[in-house]
Design goal:
The complex is a heterodimer. By secondary structure, chain A is mainly β. In chain A, 0% of the residues lie in helices and 53% in strands. Chain A is globular, with a radius of gyration of 13 Å. Classes of the chains: A mainly beta, B mainly beta.
Chain lengths: 112, 113
Amino acid sequence: ETGVTQSPTHLIKTRGQQVTLRCSSQSGHNTVSWYQQALGQGPQFIFQYYREEENGRGNFPPRFSGLQFPNYSSELNVNALELDDSALYLCACQLAGQETQYFGPGTRLLVL
Amino acid sequence: AQSVTQLDSQVPVFEEAPVELRCNYSSSVSVYLFWYVQYPNQGLQLLLKYLSGSTLVKGINGFEAEFNKSQTSFHLRKPSVHISDTAEYFCAVSGGGSYIPTFGRGTSLIVHP
């Protein structure tokens, strides 16, 4: 049990719609990272938030955006959904300056 | 830039047999290395990690891994597997001032009775 929760667990959207995924940590981890895991692949880094600001970004377009709140919870927003956005979205929490990330159970997004 | 290669996409093994899952990494700086396990329809759970010190690292569920700097490898081993070890295993590397890990594509461990 990592103490990291994500909601919703599953989501179905249609192409062109927008989606918001949520992540929270019970352990006071102040850094949050988001990953996209396509079927049969390893997690791909989307971005990281620390102190409510983006602190690093992977190779994802601007329609992927995020927020971090003062209580360290976080949102991932995806606009103009495409079929290839169908994936498991994972958030990972850690303390700044620490090397270990703790993952939530993920949100499985299906875009039709 | 860092990269991770997991040499086997799938490893079938019989219950109570030993297993080794292979991982090689590429990095120009000192590294932190991780193994995560993912059970069906779940997130990633940390099995073990190498940060520094002893090259043999012991983790949960009877798994261990050995860091070999000269061969840039971090292979995962278990002397006797159980059916419940059937899962996807991911090797990851971070370092060089970044704590954001790069993941391999995963190895599917399939334990047969």
